Amino acid sequence: MTAGNVLYYGDNLDVLREHIPDESVDLIYLDPPFNSNATYNVLFKTHAGDESRAQIQAFDDTWHWGPQAEDEYDELTKGRAPIETARFIEAMRTVLGANDMLAYLVMMAPRLIELRRAMKPTATIYLHCDPTSSHYLKLLMDTVFGKQGFINEIIWHYQTGGGSKRHFSKKHDTLLFYCKTAQYLFYPQNVKIPRTEKSLARARNPKGARISVDDTEKLPEDVFDIQALNPMSRERLGYPTQKPLELLERVIAASSSPDDVVLDPFCGCGTAVDAAQQLKRSWIGIDITYIAVDLIIKRLQHRYGNDILATFTTNGIPTDIEGAEALFARNPFDFERWAVSFVSGQPNEKQVGDKGIDGRIRFHRGGDVAGLAAVSVKGGRQLNPAMVHQLIGAMGDERAEMGVLITLHRPTAGMLETASRVGTYEHAPTGNRYPRVQIVTIPELFDGERPNMPTAILPYIKASPRPQSEAVSLFDDESG
Q: Whole-structure pTM over 0.85, yes or no?
């Protein structure tokens, strides 16, 4: 694996403009929000108009026209965008009006322009979308890459539960496959798939002669029959829009070589990053929420071991007290998530109704039983013993054996005294005793200190990842 794997925490438009050089990327896969009018637990805010608009934990994939969208529209149509893209956006305003879909397209257009800039002449891009927006996005892609840049409209067909009596069951997504120039690289031989018995029968001659071994496999067509992740899948991490590794492995193997650079600007829970790592590509991942970035880090640790941490860098995550203070000022919710993750905890899925805690650390308590430490985070300067009492109350509600209070600034003497009065917790498997309530500051965490407690269980992972040995048998396909 070549050096240069980077995970960015931030707005992908800013990251692309500030950190990704011209013609430096071999393959791009992006799975942006679909404008599906659905609600998910993790990604980024849809409305425009405030400084931290892209850094909240819960998001509605429903877009609305607002001041920020108006500003982005003006930027696109008054000189920054290629003339074809500017005219398309103006035409869409004429046709659609200043509505939700136009706000979505205005968000996507500058990102696609920056992605094209970052692509090498031989690079390709796969834009993952669904029927809600695919027809608009295809037109937008035509204006950015040219109609001659279109290669395939790939249908990812999957079987999931549920149906409808109001319409045909919706069982596919679309991948729009484009190139930057006619010199793009493509390796279909890398992703041959087994023929089905039905297709083998069709391939035999009328006399029923046996076909050669080479004919037992075929090149994939533009319909990928790859199973979506089911609730019991070993890959599933609990991230609502997670895609299967098999899908990303097919894309990456077909359109890149070992050591090529793969970029995912909406990397979510990191399936493209994981697939690129497995296939020995260099990778760049970008996400706007800290919880997603931390999940990817933990995912890579779980799948490849702690040594993986030395093979990539992170950018945008605080590394000193000034960075921590800036994050708290910019978005207190992401500050809380970051602080909880700093102590190997799992942040809350929701930031409202949190019952006085901001996350949980789980640890082995013997057998299959997990112990629990409740975590509370305070970033402000006004600290007092009532905050410790609140944590103690939350510990009782959660039936937590321990509690950890993380503060950005130095706690008061009264807070330390209140915490010391709570007593100790005895860890049954080891007999070790630990302070039941502990206060740790962000500067202490930067200095390498951690809460004095049993070893934490790695958060996020809710099922075993696919064994490495299975990764070479990637491409099961039921199409004939």
A: no
